[in-house]
Design goal:
Helix 3 packs parallel to helix 5. The protein is of the alpha/beta class. It is built from nine helices and ten strands. The protein has a single domain, classed as 3-Layer(aba) Sandwich (Rossmann fold), CATH 3.40.50.720.
Length: 209
């Protein structure tokens, strides 16, 4: 069984950890300052370096504006792994909601791939409220999970994880190589306007067919 490490223990990381553990995966949460339990006896908690070293698949749920520095420091531990990047690299607006993109001329996923050449980076799940990541059926219309990455085998493995999170194959849209992540990441610019008007109700920026 492949161990899945989740770096980041906030709402996103905690939700993903609980759902993947309930699906039968061996899940370890990596905290910058471990010491608290995960709240789920089936989820282990350790420091981020140890978690990355133990895992075959690592999910980046750290704040996107600092992810590049944090993960670049784990280059040796992340070598040979699949890195699933679900973060958005934005600067906060005055009200604390996402504002400008940190990387307007590219994407966080592209920079992670360049900084971690021995790691297979896959971008997904960054275009929705975090509750939809683990409960896509909560929406009245089918949501879309966009997928970007250079390695097709890695993307196939990530599709399997998405299935364990409740995503149907027809809800997954493979955009292509990692350069396409800049389009998916730019969609976050819609999010603060939706949240200000609608509040924190489940939603996803989806493709209608």
């Amino acid at each position: 069984m492949t161990t899945i490490a989740i770096l980041g223990a906030g709402r996103v990381g905690g939700s993903l950890a609980r759902k993947l553990a309930s699906a039968g995966h061996d899940v370890v949460v990596g905290r910058r300052h471990p010491g608290e339990e995960a709240g789920d006896p089936s989820v282990r908690v350790t420091d981020q370096r140890t978690a990355a070293r133990e895992a075959g698949i690592v999910i980046n749920a750290t704040p996107g504006d600092t992810s590049l520095d944090r993960l670049s420091d784990l280059r040796a531990e992340l070598a040979g792994t699949i890195l699933v990047d679900v973060s958005n690299a934005t600067r906060d607006a005055a009200d604390g909601l996402p504002g400008d993109l940190v990387y307007p001329d590219g994407s966080l996923a592209e920079r992670l791939q360049r900084a971690l050449p021995e790691t297979r980076v896959v971008k997904t799940l960054n275009t929705m409220l975090f509750t939809v990541m683990t409960d896509p059926r909560s929406l009245s219309t089918p949501p879309t999970a966009y997928l970007s990455g250079d390695d097709d085998t890695a993307k196939d493995e990530v599709k399997g994880l998405l299935a364990d999170l409740g995503w149907r194959p027809e809800w997954i849209e493979d955009l292509g190589d990692v350069s396409t992540a800049r389009a998916a990441e730019a969609l976050v610019l819609l999010v603060p306007h939706i949240l200000r008007r609608r509040g924190f109700h489940p939603f996803a920026v989806s493709l209608a067919r």
